[in-house]
Amino acid sequence: MKNVAPDKDDPYFKEIEQEIRRRTEEYKVLHEIAKILHNPDGLKNMLVKALTTLVRFQELEVENKAGIFLADPENKVLRLFCTVGEFGQEFMEKEAEIAYGACLCGKAAISGEILISNSCFTDLRHEHKFDNMTAHGHYIVPLKSENQLIGILFLYTDESPPWYVRSQEILLSIGGLIADAIVSRRREEEIQHKNTQLSELNELKNKFLGIASHDLRNPLYMIKTFSEALKDGTVGELNDKQKEISGKIFNASNFMQGLLENLLDISKIESGKIDLTKETQDINPTAKQQVELSQLVADKKNIQLHFDPGDLPAIPYDTSAITQVMGNFIGNAVKFSPPDSKVLVTTEKLDSTVRFSVHDEGPGLSAEDQQLLFKEFQTLTARPTGGEKSTGLGLAICKKLIHLHDGQVGVTSKLGEGSTFYFSLPMG
Ligand SMILES: Nc1ncnc2c1ncn2[C@@H]1O[C@H](COP(=O)(O)OP(=O)(O)OP(=O)(O)O)[C@@H](O)[C@H]1O
Ligand SMILES: [Mg+2]
Description:
Blueprint: H1 11-38, H2 43-55, E1 62-72, E2 77-84, H3 89-94, E3 97-99, H4 103-111, E4 115-117, E5 137-145, E6 148-157, H5 167-231, H6 240-270, E7 278-281, H7 284-300, E8 304-308, E9 315-318, H8 319-336, E10 342-349, E11 353-360, H9 367-372, H10 394-404, E12 408-413, E13 419-426
Parallel strand pairs: 8-10
Antiparallel strand pairs: 1-2, 1-6, 2-3, 4-5, 5-6, 7-9, 10-11, 11-13, 12-13
Helix pairs in contact: 1-2, 1-5, 5-6, 6-10, 7-8, 8-10
């Protein structure tokens, strides 16, 4: 078929051209408003910008005069939230709050339908009158999100304007966008508020934890020392029952001391009161020392502890913090492994990190248990195999200490097939 150039004077062609132009304008205004509503601006600023863009949309032929009421469904009132254009003081005062059902906006709040009014003087629904009121018409648009009324948008027009043919469609779409944006902004504000509350509460908890555990330390130390003296017969021989009871007091106070130290550690780390003193050095000597210390406990269960050090560069770390982490990893491996098993401690250099790992032949961890590891107070399926103490705080502290070094902790394990706990530290 042969292409024929269109006749630009043909009325049909003109109509099509006009239609394309309008559609392009509509698309532009929708796009512009959607963009504004996605900006991380304050709610009022954002809505004023959206209104400003909307009143400039020529096809609507509205005045530079518009506003938004926010709905309070509980009290069945609309509250004026923002306006663009000139509004007198009388208007601002009288319209600060209007009841559902009153005047045009209140009526749209009840019906949830868009409302078009030709003249404030002849439309009986326009109940509110003002001094010096000049003749005008209105678009009143309900702002609805998930079918809930969030507010009302009102636009001023001339009296009996040539209402734009697709105004309902466009205004309702824009109303939906605005309502969704208000809801999501409110949710964000609520989350932010909750987060601030939570972090304040956490701070309070840490303070309380710090004070409580600090004040319990000394009396507990006394109970522990005296019960030890009693059970060992240092202050005179006891009968078997007395020995058994003082032994139990000693064990319980020993457990409590561990728990208090852990709680104090957590409160110090969380409240940012821990000072790391990093020195650049090899981690192997620190690891070796921890392996040797743990050997004494491992011997009691006939667990063979091996250390396989890699060739490592010196890295910056706080000796006491890393010693604590290594101690807990190796301690756990020994604590949760059955007698006569093996524990292997290795160190190795990876791409830009140094990794410390402890592999055991213990009970391993299910996928669910692995999710809970490294969180406070998690004593999981594996229980100590030699009656050792278990407060479930060790790994939570380890994770925090390693994160303070910008490092990572992790585990690979399968239920019944042992576990490998590791941490890696950056090289510098
Ligand atoms: N090597 C391991 N094998 C199997 N389970 C383990 C291993 N290490 C830790 N777990 C499980 O994870 C839980 C949490 O370990 P974590 O070190 O935090 O606490 P804990 O050793 O019980 O007490 P503590 O606060 O004295 O360290 C343990 O109670 C245990 O159930
Ligand atoms: Mg532990």
